[in-house]
Automatic annotation (TrEMBL):
SUPFAM superfamilies: ATPase domain of HSP90 chaperone/DNA topoisomerase II/histidine kinase (SSF55874), CheY-like (SSF52172), Homodimeric domain of signal transducing histidine kinase (SSF47384)
Class of the enzyme per the UniProt entry, highest EC level: transferase
Domain Histidine kinase span(s) in chain numbering: 170-423
Reaction it catalyzes: ATP + protein L-histidine = ADP + protein N-phospho-L-histidine
Domain of life: Bacteria
Name of this chain's protein: Stage 0 sporulation protein A homolog
Coiled-coil intervals: 120-154
CDD domains found in the cross-reference section: HisKA
Modified residues (4-aspartylphosphate): D53
Function: May play the central regulatory role in sporulation. It may be an element of the effector pathway responsible for the activation of sporulation genes in response to nutritional stress. Spo0A may act in concert with spo0H (a sigma factor) to control the expression of some genes that are critical to the sporulation process.
Biological source species: Clostridium beijerinckii (Clostridium MP)
Domain Response regulatory positions: 2-118
Protein keywords: Coiled coil, Kinase, Phosphoprotein, Transferase, Two-component regulatory system
SMART domains, alphabetized: HATPase_c, REC
């Protein structure tokens, strides 16, 4: 316990020190002969209790009290006074004095008031320690709560992906088998068509070379005349087969993506990916969903993508981010009940690759703009969303990829979400 005695009379300081010694009060005594010296000591040392004389030359005790209280609200201050005028004491208490001691010093009163001040300081310290402990506990609880929320999001996301993955893998394997023999049969048909065309060419050549032999044969002549129809069918056969093969290749590509999607290990890998391809894949899935609900004509899509758009990232996680952001834009365009626009732009800024997705939907209210990445926050009607979409996006971009996810919006005009990934 550090006690500072401030008095311009040396006798009063000696008397106070002697009484403290006789009373066996354990403390460290520091002295000052003026208010200026006391303020300097307060700026450099940790003081618990001040015994401050009211009447001092230059800087009075009340002025010193006022200055000390500006920067130190917790120190216990007892005023030394030999004055009978209560106005000075009232002024002292007005500026934050805790108690007073009469001069000349009477040992019993001095000891009693000083011990009370020491107890007050001890209670104050105990309270401050409890407050700090509570503050630390609260900070730890906040940190634990944040981790719990993050873990909860991760678990929900993992379970969601796991369920979709198992379901998708099952469908993919079911489709894969018939797709295999359909693809095989198409190649066989293509081969047969080629053979038929070769035989037709030989047949027509033979007819032309031996036309005079069959001139009187009406049926053969009619068959020869109808060969143009066969030629048309066979010529049309090739583009039909080509288009069918392209369709089968697309189906095969989708199935491969679904099988990869169902592989949980793929969600931990960072590889070089072309962002424009991830946008294309996300739009393919969205278009299928929109077509199902007859919403494929709800918006116009405009792309402004840079050529060099390779970035090291987790393909499936970033696809999920793009998918969720665009789907969010579509939802808020739909609220306006008119055709809207979605603009997707990519560019490089300092050491970041940036993907900007803008829409002219209903936008986000100003008071909600800082909440949209919070877990379970949603402005949608009950049953229309869990509020996890953008929170998952934030976790993927900021936590897993060490990037940034920013939002800008003007309510009633539209929103812009910017994803920044380190190059």
């Amino acid at each position: 316990m550090n006690i500072l005695i401030v008095d311009d009379t040396k006798f009063n300081i000696i008397t106070a020190k002697e009484v403290i010694k006789i009373s066996e009060i354990k403390c460290n005594i520091i002295t000052a002969a003026s208010g200026e010296e006391a303020i300097e000591i307060m700026n450099t040392q940790n003081i618990d209790i001040i015994l401050l004389d009211i009447v001092m030359p230059k800087l009075s005790g009340i002025e010193t009290l006022e200055i000390i209280r500006r920067n130190n609200k917790n120190v216990i201050i007892l005023m030394f006074t030999s004055l009978t005028d209560k106005k000075y004491l009232e002024k002292s208490f007005e500026f934050g004095a805790n108690d007073y001691i009469n001069k000349p010093i009477e040992p019993i009163e001095f000891t009693s008031r000083l011990k009370s001040a020491i107890k007050m300081r001890e209670y104050q310290n105990a309270l401050m320690e409890s407050y700090n402990n509570l503050k630390n506990t609260n900070a730890q609880l906040k940190e634990s709560n944040a981790k719990l929320k993050t873990t909860q999001i991760e678990l929900v996301n993992r379970e969601k992906l796991s369920t979709i993955g198992r379901f998708s893998a099952g469908i993919a394997h079911e489709i894969n088998t018939p797709l295999g023999y359909v693809t095989s049969n198409i190649y066989t048909i293509q081969s047969y068509a080629k053979t038929l065309k070769e035989y037709l060419d030989k047949y027509l050549t033979f007819i032309k070379e031996n036309e005079e032999c069959f001139f009187d044969n009406k049926e053969l002549k009619e068959l020869a005349d109808s060969s143009s129809k066969l030629e048309f069918i066979l010529s049309d056969f090739e583009p039909v087969i080509t288009e069918t093969n392209e369709g089968l290749e697309k189906i095969s590509s989708i199935i491969k993506n679904i099988i990869r999607f169902s592989n949980e290990d793929a969600y931990d890998n960072l590889e070089m990916n072309k962002i424009s391809e991830l946008i294309e894949e996300s739009m393919k899935i969205l278009k299928m969903e929109l077509k199902e609900y007859k919403l494929d004509d709800l918006f116009d899509l405009k792309l402004d993508l840079i050529e060099d758009d390779y970035i090291k990232c987790n393909r499936f996680q970033i696809e999920q981010v793009i998918f969720n952001i665009i789907k969010n834009s579509i939802y808020y365009i739909g609220i306006k009940d008119r055709k809207g626009n979605i603009n997707i732009k990519t560019y490089k800024e300092d050491e970041y690759f940036c993907l900007e997705i803008s829409d002219n939907g209903i936008g986000i209210e100003e008071e909600n703009i800082n909440k949209i990445f919070d877990p379970f926050f949603t402005t949608r009607e009950p049953g229309e969303g869990t509020g996890l979409g953008l929170s998952i996006c934030y976790d993927i971009v900021v936590v897993k990829h060490k990037g940034h996810l920013l939002a800008k919006s003007v309510y009633g005009e539209g929103s812009t979400i910017i994803m920044k990934l380190p190059i």
